[in-house]
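// run 5 | inverse folding | seed 20
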């Protein structure tokens, strides 16, 4: 075992020791008027990213919801997560991760002789929207997943991924554990940067799993590429990626979708714009930047022409 691996194991042991002392403050939902218990932020209020860990052979959490985003990793061993949406237990084997939205129902369950280590990255909701929305906005499916709780308080969606041991995510997670336990100067800045890197790797892994499950058609591949790169895409760059001549690609898109490249690009941008306006407090200037517009005026005109209404009216609705 290397020095860094020993430091990570020591950090895991310390996080596990702290686990029972965290602010396990379950309260009835003060806003929704429902009976489910809500777990408040477990760390210090000034922390925007925190880590926690459980190690042992038995855990029977109360079913609850939480007011933050979280990514739980089956670091060693296997455990089960009780999911509200499917009303059953989801098995998390070693190497899996479970991504939960704010207010999604959840409970960790484990019993038996074999110990398990579960490591969680917790992110305050406001910090998530401020720090991590831009990279996630490239993917409309993931964007909808992370923004849905802003509109539907009890969305109850989750993402489960299997991460190979060769994934850089595991090294990054070990670095995060060591950094969090050490609590040195600039730790929060470092943790937030590492969280962003892990999220980007998770996005990549998510797409790889989706492609393995169902091989997309050519039309789906082209539309997905537009959606993923709509903030900076040109016909030339897309043609280069797929190995086509721009003129051929232009004609192919019309043949397959009955829309031009410019129309498809606008469709993608406007769908994302509507999600931002309906689910976030972002300004028109920030939304324009995320969508790839040079200024807010261009975004405003495009939105009004496309939807027949203004961004302000959509946000106020």
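// decoded
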């Amino acid at each position: 075992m290397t020095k860094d691996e020993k430091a990570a194991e020591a950090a895991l042991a310390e996080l596990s020791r702290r686990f029972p002392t965290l602010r396990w403050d379950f309260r009835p939902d003060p806003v929704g008027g429902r009976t489910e218990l809500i777990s408040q932020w477990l760390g210090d209020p000034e922390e925007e990213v925190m880590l926690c860990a459980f190690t042992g052979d038995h855990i029977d959490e109360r079913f609850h919801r939480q007011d933050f985003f979280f990514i739980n990793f089956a670091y060693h061993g296997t455990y089960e997560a009780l999911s509200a949406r499917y009303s059953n237990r989801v098995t998390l084997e070693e190497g899996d991760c479970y991504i939960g939205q704010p207010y999604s129902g959840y409970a960790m369950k484990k019993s038996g002789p074999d110990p398990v280590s579960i490591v969680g990255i917790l992110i305050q909701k406001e910090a998530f929207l401020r720090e991590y929305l831009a990279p996630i906005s490239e993917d409309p499916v993931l964007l909808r997943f992370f923004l849905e709780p802003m509109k539907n308080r009890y969305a109850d969606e989750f993402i489960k991924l299997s991460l190979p041991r060769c994934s850089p995510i595991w090294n990054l997670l070990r670095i995060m554990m060591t950094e969090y336990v050490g609590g040195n100067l600039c730790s929060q800045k470092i943790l937030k940067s590492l969280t962003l890197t892990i999220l980007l790797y998770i996005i990549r892994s998510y797409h790889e799993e989706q492609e393995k499950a169902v091989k997309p058609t050519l039309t789906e591949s082209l539309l997905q590429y537009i959606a993923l790169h709509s903030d900076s895409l040109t016909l030339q760059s897309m043609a280069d990626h797929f190995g086509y001549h721009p003129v051929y690609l232009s004609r192919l898109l019309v043949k397959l979708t009955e829309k031009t490249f410019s129309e498809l690009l606008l469709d993608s941008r406007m769908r994302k714009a509507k999600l931002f306006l309906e689910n976030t407090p972002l300004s028109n200037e920030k939304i324009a930047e995320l969508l790839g517009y040079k200024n807010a005026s261009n975004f405003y005109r495009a939105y009004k022409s496309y939807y027949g209404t203004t961004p302000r009216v959509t946000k106020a609705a």
